[in-house]
Task: inverse folding
Protein backbone atom coordinates (compact mmCIF):
# COMPACT_ATOMS: atom_id res chain seq x y z
CA UNK A 1 0.00 0.00 0.00
CA UNK A 2 2.91 2.33 0.72
CA UNK A 3 4.06 2.22 -2.91
CA UNK A 4 0.58 3.14 -4.13
CA UNK A 5 0.37 6.00 -1.64
CA UNK A 6 3.82 7.32 -2.48
CA UNK A 7 3.02 7.38 -6.20
CA UNK A 8 -0.27 9.16 -5.54
CA UNK A 9 1.43 11.80 -3.40
CA UNK A 10 4.09 12.43 -6.07
CA UNK A 11 1.38 12.76 -8.71
CA UNK A 12 -0.63 15.23 -6.61
CA UNK A 13 2.38 17.41 -5.89
CA UNK A 14 3.28 17.47 -9.60
CA UNK A 15 -0.31 18.39 -10.49
CA UNK A 16 -0.27 21.31 -8.05
CA UNK A 17 3.24 22.53 -8.83
CA UNK A 18 2.04 25.51 -10.90
CA UNK A 19 -0.91 26.60 -8.76
CA UNK A 20 -0.67 30.33 -8.11
CA UNK A 21 -3.65 30.97 -5.81
CA UNK A 22 -2.17 31.21 -2.28
CA UNK A 23 -5.42 29.99 -0.71
CA UNK A 24 -5.26 26.78 -2.77
CA UNK A 25 -1.57 26.30 -1.95
CA UNK A 26 -2.12 26.72 1.79
CA UNK A 27 -5.14 24.40 1.77
CA UNK A 28 -3.28 21.79 -0.26
CA UNK A 29 -0.23 21.80 2.00
CA UNK A 30 -2.33 21.80 5.18
CA UNK A 31 -4.31 18.75 4.06
CA UNK A 32 -1.18 16.86 3.03
CA UNK A 33 0.51 17.67 6.33
CA UNK A 34 -2.50 16.31 8.21
CA UNK A 35 -2.47 13.22 5.98
CA UNK A 36 1.24 12.62 6.66
CA UNK A 37 0.66 12.84 10.39
CA UNK A 38 -2.22 10.38 10.23
CA UNK A 39 -0.41 7.72 8.20
CA UNK A 40 2.62 7.66 10.49
CA UNK A 41 0.84 5.07 12.62
CA UNK A 42 -2.07 2.73 12.13
CA UNK A 43 -4.63 5.05 13.74
CA UNK A 44 -5.98 6.03 10.31
CA UNK A 45 -7.04 2.49 9.40
CA UNK A 46 -10.82 2.24 9.15
CA UNK A 47 -11.30 5.97 9.65
CA UNK A 48 -14.02 7.59 7.56
CA UNK A 49 -13.60 10.70 5.45
CA UNK A 50 -15.08 13.91 6.79
CA UNK A 51 -18.38 14.47 4.96
CA UNK A 52 -17.86 18.26 5.01
CA UNK A 53 -14.63 17.82 3.06
CA UNK A 54 -16.30 15.47 0.60
CA UNK A 55 -19.10 17.98 0.04
CA UNK A 56 -16.51 20.66 -0.84
CA UNK A 57 -14.71 18.49 -3.41
CA UNK A 58 -14.99 19.19 -7.11
CA UNK A 59 -16.20 16.52 -9.54
CA UNK A 60 -12.57 15.99 -10.58
CA UNK A 61 -11.46 15.48 -6.98
CA UNK A 62 -14.29 13.04 -6.35
CA UNK A 63 -13.26 11.15 -9.50
CA UNK A 64 -9.68 10.97 -8.25
CA UNK A 65 -10.85 9.76 -4.87
CA UNK A 66 -12.91 7.05 -6.54
CA UNK A 67 -9.94 5.97 -8.69
CA UNK A 68 -7.77 5.80 -5.59
CA UNK A 69 -10.37 3.67 -3.83
CA UNK A 70 -10.50 1.30 -6.80
CA UNK A 71 -6.71 1.03 -6.96
CA UNK A 72 -6.53 0.23 -3.24
CA UNK A 73 -9.26 -2.38 -3.53
CA UNK A 74 -7.58 -3.95 -6.56
CA UNK A 75 -4.19 -4.07 -4.83
CA UNK A 76 -5.82 -5.50 -1.71
CA UNK A 77 -7.57 -8.21 -3.74
CA UNK A 78 -4.36 -9.18 -5.56
CA UNK A 79 -2.41 -9.19 -2.31
CA UNK A 80 -4.76 -11.63 -0.58
Result:
Amino acid sequence: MRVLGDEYVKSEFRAHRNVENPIHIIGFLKEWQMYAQQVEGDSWYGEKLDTEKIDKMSDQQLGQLYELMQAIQEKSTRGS
Q: What stands out?
A: The chain has a mean pLDDT of 79. The CA atoms of residues 6 and 17 lie 16 Å apart. The helical segments are 2-15, 22-39, 51-56, 59-79. The two ends are 13 Å apart (CA to CA).
